[in-house]
Amino acid sequence: MNRPIVWLALLATSGLAPAQQPAAPPQARPAGAFEVNGIAAKVNGRVITKNRVGFMLAPIYAQLMAQFPRRGAEFERQALEAREKILQELIDREIILSEFKAMESKGANLPPHVVEKEIDRQIRELYNGSEVKFEEELKRARMTRDGFRKMTREQLIVQAIRAEHFSDAPPPLPGEIQKEYSSVRDSIRDITKDKITFNKIFLPRQDAQNPLATAESQLALAEQIAADVKAGSDFSELAKKHSRDAFSAEGGFQENVPRTDLAPEFAAIIFNGKAGDVVGPLEDPAGFTVVKIGQIFPGPAPSLSEVKENIEERVRRKKSSVAYERWIEGKRRAAMIEKKI
After folding, report:
1. Half-sphere exposure of 268 (CA within 13 A, CB side)
2. Any transmembrane segments, and where (predicted)?
3. CATH code for the domain of 59
4. Engineering a disulfide at 228: which of 91, 130, 233, 317 sits with its beta carbon 3.0 to 4.6 angstroms away?
């Protein structure tokens, strides 16, 4: 078995493959910007569709929608930056995939079970283990499971090709391996086991207790509450006064909430914070939320011995990054690339 395929198998089983972000809710998908099967780019005659870009952009867009209720210039900047990054990633992917075709003629192969393990990992870690959420996102993107399987296979192949071309990097030193493991340990933990304790204030878009409230006035109130808490106001008292959920009487206090009980895009935002942070207001279809993080309990991370070979591979890739960028830039210049967005 050749080296890329061995590396792929390890990658899929360890969960170190670069992951997509959690799926976006229906209202957060940038559907209007991507007509179905529209062309985003062509690479040597091969088409990259807009809905493929949209599928990869959707989870990032969902987080930005939640994080920037008023949208604005920073929202637009980050959304455009994310779209450009994704499009370039897909263009580079098409360029590199041509390398695998030559390897296939020499017997290289990617076993289907490796792809399935990677899909299982993404469902477990990015969709809170929910097949339903995963299938819903596929449906919104007008993508079949076979289509997603093909996309995942291509992603793994591209990573393997890069590893094959730049396998002559200097061997990782023990200190480099330990440093790399320490830097990624948290990101490769089992996030489905994450828990969090926090206080929350929820303001619905339409408040039955205040018929004059509008979405705009509720957002303004949420912004004021967040500012008051940051200035020292008691979160619990504000929750009892303003929050409209089942926990308002307890000051919005919720203890040891599993990550899997939260919307994926919200979880991605608040689990990225630290104890004492005031997060929000965050937006969803129902209203606006302000959170004060109490304590985060991360899920277990694999030991270094479990993922050592993959950590070594990450170190090698970093050492060869300059050579890789020079190589891929040459490939870009030689390719026929036509961007449509």
Report:
1. 22
2. none
3. 1.10.4030
4. 233
pTM above 0.90, yes or no: no
**pLDDT at residue 28, rounded to an integer:** 42
Residue with tokens 């891929």: 328
- Indicate the DSSP class of residue 189: S
Same domain, 97 and 145: yes
Query: Per-residue pLDDT tens for 199-241?
Result: 999 999 988 888 888 999 999 999 999 999 999 999 999 999 9
Quote the domain boundaries for residue 152. Answer: 3-168+320-339
Distance CA 147, CA 155 (A): 12
Count of domains forming the chain: 2
Q: What element of type H or E holds 179? A: helix 174-184
The whole-angstrom distance between residue 186's C-alpha and the CA centroid of its chain comes to 15
Question: Are the beta carbons of 281 and 69 closer than 8 angstroms?
Answer: yes
b/e map of 265-284 (b: 16 or more CB within 10 Å)? bbbbbbbebeeebbbbbbbb
